[in-house]
Amino acid sequence: MRVGIVGYGTAGQAAAILLGRQGHEVTVFEKSPVLGPVGAGFLLQPTGLAVLDRLALAEKALALGQRIDELHGTTPSGRAVMAMRYADRRPGCFGLGMTRGALFELLRSADAGATTVRTGIRIVAHDEATSSLHDEEGHVHGPFDLVVVADGAHSVLRPHCKGQVRRESLYPWGAVWCLLRVDDWHAHEHLLQRYAGTRTMIGMLPVGTRPGHEGRWVTFFFSLPGDRVECFDDAALDDMKREAVALWPELAPHLASLERADQLHKARYRDVVLRRPHHGHLVVIGDAAHAMSPQLGQGVNMALLDAEALADALAAHDDIDKALGAYRRGRHAHVRTYQFMSRWLTPLFQSDHAWLGPGRDALFGPMGRLPGVRGTMLGILSGEARLRRKH
Ligand SMILES: Cc1cc2nc3c(=O)[nH]c(=O)nc-3n(C[C@H](O)[C@H](O)[C@H](O)COP(=O)(O)OP(=O)(O)OC[C@H]3O[C@@H](n4cnc5c(N)ncnc54)[C@H](O)[C@@H]3O)c2cc1C
Would you say residue 130 lies in a domain? Predict the structure, then answer.
């Protein structure tokens, strides 16, 4: 088949590798003029690691990233709100902190030369009648037997999945985040978070190595209301550093290197629900299909799972319509579970609903120790809740 993929983020990269390996003729369109990662770092879950394993990339990922064994979230006074150990899910279970750059280079190396990646082309429309893609300069690309839309949370191609967009809203909250070099950080195997009410959430996620740089790195994350993300400037950076250090004094030496607002990335989240992720011979994967707040740290993993499930469905069915139906059924329960959980949990950690904070702080710790609840929480953390995966 001739396959056109829109977007060369994690979903587009993984789909390009897997479909290319199946012998399809794959062309990727990426709007950025230069290929590279966007953002700081992320937590790869056992689910995402399993997909990398299938791509024979897990060993390299482990060498580049940082094994994460535990998640600890506390209030500024030290009260435990979240305390989870991957090993309580099952022995040998863990997450992997990685820089975006490390994952990008890893997937790029697995794809090198096999796929045509056309950079600096912003696709703006899909013509269903001719099965082609149109870019913003009026050029037409295609025709394609299958179009894979992987253009991220703020997708412009999503509406071309006609009649399928059930929800598409901007979250009122977002975050600023960046990589910090912290060779002397005391908790390299832990994702640490600090919550002050529902209006402030700070995270330190060790992410291992960074291509082209020395030392060990963490992703620093600070949640902010959306309007404050948009106008985050040097003065806002000073305020943020003051607040972060007041709530978490150990951060002071590590935040000292932040002097300009443009050293941090800005993120706004969307909540996207599609009735079906396909229309005709166009299929939507990754954040474009199910953007959510990153509260549960699943988006990269879901992008990898989508790409794998799509490739498996296409391998199992000669008929594209049947393959897309099988793809939808295979991913449905998992995607819906995490959409629901993320919509339910995000306001407890990032919202103006201050009254939720004390209840969360009082109940989450004890609830997490109840045997039934603990198992469910660990299933959600590991990305494995209601997951159907063939391999
Ligand atoms: C602060 C923050 C923390 C996060 N932490 C985690 C975490 O710990 N774990 C986790 O699993 N996930 C995390 N995520 C979520 C994760 O980043 C996303 O879910 C994931 O990157 C989605 O991948 P994607 O390929 O679908 O989209 P993207 O990575 O957004 O890629 C989309 C690509 O499409 C390109 N593009 C866009 N529009 C067009 C167009 N019109 N034409 C051509 N190209 C286009 C873009 O340039 C980009 O390269 C986090 C997100 C944020 C914001």
Answer: yes
Q: Convert the pLDDT of each residue in 20-77 to its tens digit.
A: 999 999 999 999 999 888 889 999 999 999 999 999 999 999 999 999 999 999 999 9
Q: Ligand 1 test: best mutation among 18, 27, 30, most atoms within 8 Å of CB?
A: 30
| Best residue among 17, 29, 30, 42 to mutate for probing ligand 1, ranked by most atoms within 8 Å of CB | 42
Report the pLDDT value the prediction gives residue 143, as an integer from 0 to 100.
Answer: 98
Q: How far is the CA of 209 from the centre of ligand 1 (A)?
A: 20
Q: Is the CB of 97 under 6 A from ligand 1?
A: no
Q: What is the pTM of this model?
A: 0.97
Compute the distance between CA of residue 55 and CA of residue 51 in angstroms, rounded to an integer. 6
Give me 371's structure tokens: 């045997």
In a domain, 58, yes or no: yes
CATH number, domain containing residue 133? 3.50.50.60
Q: Tell me the C-alpha distance between 145 and 160, whole Å.
A: 16
The parent domain of residue 121 ranges over 2-170+268-381
Q: Looking at residue 113, what is its pLDDT?
A: 72
Q: At what angle do helices 299-316 and 10-21 cross, to 10 degrees?
A: 20
Mark the ranges of the chain whose per-residue pLDDT is less than 50: none
Whether the CB of 131 sits within 6 Å of ligand 1? no
Looking at the chain, the number of H-run helices and the number of E-run strands are: 12, 19
Nearest residue CA, atom 51 of ligand 1? 294
CA distance 336 to 347: 18
Task: Name the strand (E) or helix (H) holding 44.
Answer: strand 41-44
Q: Tell me if residue 75 falls in helix, strand or coil.
A: coil
What was the pLDDT predicted at 391? 61
